[in-house]
Design a protein that fits this description.
With 101 residues, the protein is mostly helical. The chain has four helices and no strands. The protein has helices at residues 4-7, 11-28, 53-62, 66-72. The chain is rod-shaped. The N and C termini lie far apart (109 Å).
């Protein structure tokens, strides 16, 4: 058979094989451990959310109502009816008491 490789006795193919195997071995080596940079310090305050109708509606759904606010208020000078706490559950707090507004 005639050709360039036949003239050199197959040495060109051998050179290609050696180059390829050395390159593949180098690619398979583990990369050097690079020390990662520290993350920047986060800002203390959260970013402002943009408004809009959808955001206002969501806030409106989860907002604390005035009724709930009064029910959460507890006066420490008064004793509740449930002294023994037989039924631990929802308390009306200062809601419905005299002088609570």
């Amino acid at each position: 058979s005639s050709g360039i490789n036949a003239e050199y006795g197959g040495s060109i193919g051998q050179q290609f094989l050696e180059e390829i195997t050395t390159k593949v071995e180098k690619l398979q080596e583990a990369p050097l451990a690079t020390r990662g940079r520290a993350l920047p310090r986060p800002d203390d305050e959260p970013r402002k959310k943009r408004g809009g109708r959808r955001v206002r509606k969501m806030k409106e759904k989860t907002a604390v109502t005035e009724l709930r606010r009064r029910a959460n208020r507890v006066s420490f000078a008064q004793v509740e009816e449930d002294i023994l706490q037989d039924e631990i559950g929802f308390s009306l707090g200062s809601l419905g008491k005299e002088g609570s507004g």
